[in-house]
Amino acid sequence: MADGKGATGECKPLGFIPFMQDDAADRVLETVARRLIAKGYRVEGLVQHAENVEGQCCGAVDLEDIVTGKRWQIMQALGAHARGCRLDFNALSDVAVFAEVRIRTQPDLLILNRFGKGEERGGGLRSVFEAAFVADVPILTSVKQPYLDGWQAFSGGLSEPLPADAEAVLTWSCKAIGEARRVRDVA
């Protein structure tokens, strides 16, 4: 539902953009982060930047912290004919530790670039997703088509699919932030 509301009319705490190609989802997440920050919301999290690297089978991928601009290269350069997993698990672990510390500031919204294969299997940034959920911080992410079943199992019906459209995602984000604030005020 593009309106960001579940069957009960309440905004679900997890919003995700299903995608096949990374570019559109990455641009929407970054645009929404910048616009929310400009409106005075406290947004934490990570956006992804990918680029092609000549002589490599796949491009370089950086994760950028939305607030500080700090970047981590999360893919290893394994050569033009590499076929194995290029994800740099040490770098990803450093990112996870950094992001979990930032959640303690109780942001209005956490944006995480992906829920993918690593998260589906219990690794990657899954601990960050879990920490934010436990802290009642709404989460916005993207999920590539092959990992949608894993996302649905993980989110347990608490997630809302969103189109790769900045306005629709911004609308959901503002509603999710408002709902989380109401929950925190009651507690």
Can you walk through the features of this model?
With 187 residues, the chain is an alpha/beta fold. It is 40% helix and 19% strand. The protein is built from 6 helices and 7 strands; from the N terminus they run βαβββαβααβαβα. The chain has helices at residues 22-38, 89-103, 117-120, 126-134, 148-155, 166-186; strands at 14-19, 43-51, 60-65, 71-73, 109-111, 139-144, 159-161. It has a 7-stranded mixed beta sheet with strand order 4-3-2-5-6-1-7, with helices on both faces. A hairpin with a 5-residue loop joins strand 3 (60-65) and strand 4. Helix 1 (22-38) crosses helix 6 (166-186) and helix 2 packs parallel to helix 4. The protein is globular. It starts with 13 loop residues before the first strand and ends with a helix. The model is unreliable at 1-8 (pLDDT under 50).
